[in-house]
Amino acid sequence: MNRPLLLIHHATNRGASHPPNSIFGLKTCLEAGARVVEVDISPLADGDFVLLHDRLLDGCTNGSGLVGAHTSDEVSGLCLVWRGGVTSEPVGLLSQAVDLVSRHPNPVELQLDLKPYTHLDRETGSRLVDLLRPVKNLVRVTSEADWTLRSLHALDGDLPLGFDPWLYLGMIAHQEEVEFPEPPFRQGAYEYWDDHPLASVRWGGTADYLAARAEALWAQSPPGAVWYIHAKLLARVLDDGFDWIADLHERGAQVTAWTLNADRPPDVELAWRLAMAGVDRITTDDAPALARALSEHAKGTINVAY
Fold first, then answer.
1. 75-131, pLDDT tens digit by residue?
2. Which strand (E) or helix (H) includes residue 70?
3. Which residues make Cβ contacts (< 8 Å) with residue 51, sequence separation at least 6?
4. Which alpha helices (H) appear in the chain, and where do they start and end?
5. In whole angstroms, what separates CA 131 from the centre of its chain?
6. How far is CA 81 from each of CA 27, 105, 118, 229, 242, rounded to the nearest angstrom?
């Protein structure tokens, strides 16, 4: 393949030398010349956003309670928990990440994966847009919350966005034995987890059902968004006769598969398969390791950038 397959540094965890989503991890990625770095963000009570993946402070920090109920001053005084212990690394804020990226001499795309735990009202969305305005050409806001992405697009039609349809179409039950269940809540007639009426009964072949679901999901996504789809879901859809990657390419969208790692041989095989199917990006915990593994596996057939 001539175009490069772009590897995304998941949660700024390059080399696993710092906790995921940490400011020091982001610095490490930037200093190493990373092309695309992903961090998770959630809104705080005072308008800033915190670099955390979870809904609760418990477990990922030495604090407790709902993330969104705290202010930036409160979470800045906390430290990240990693590998079973409290680290000396403070919880980071989006404003700090934006400052780092704005001062970095080389171009980078900072993917901000906005968690769908809290409704982003217009005021909070406007604050996010304002915060990102100085680095708008260097960031991309991604989310499973399509309603939030459409709101952000209405506030700023040029803000780069990305959509993950995992809340609407999946392979596993998200809600089993968790404190905060998430959709989809039902396994449909085609054996995908899908709450949509199209999944309630079998009305045609599986490929036809998947094409119809892809059409409906496309209507939910804001214009120009990059798509972020679970790698195993992409593979299963291909096995069931529908090429979602080609469908999105025909619509003018890029496709990212998440999250595949070099320390799992099946992941390397799947990464190669999806690259051959035309996927544009792959999210990984260790981009250099996956690049090496793909180069060895593909024997020069894949041009990888990270």
1. 999 999 999 999 999 999 999 999 999 999 998 999 999 999 988 999 999 999 999
2. none
3. 21, 22, 23, 39, 40, 41, 91, 92, 93, 94, 97
4. 23-31, 72-76, 94-103, 122-132, 146-155, 206-220, 231-239, 244-250, 265-276, 287-298
5. 20
6. 19, 31, 23, 28, 41
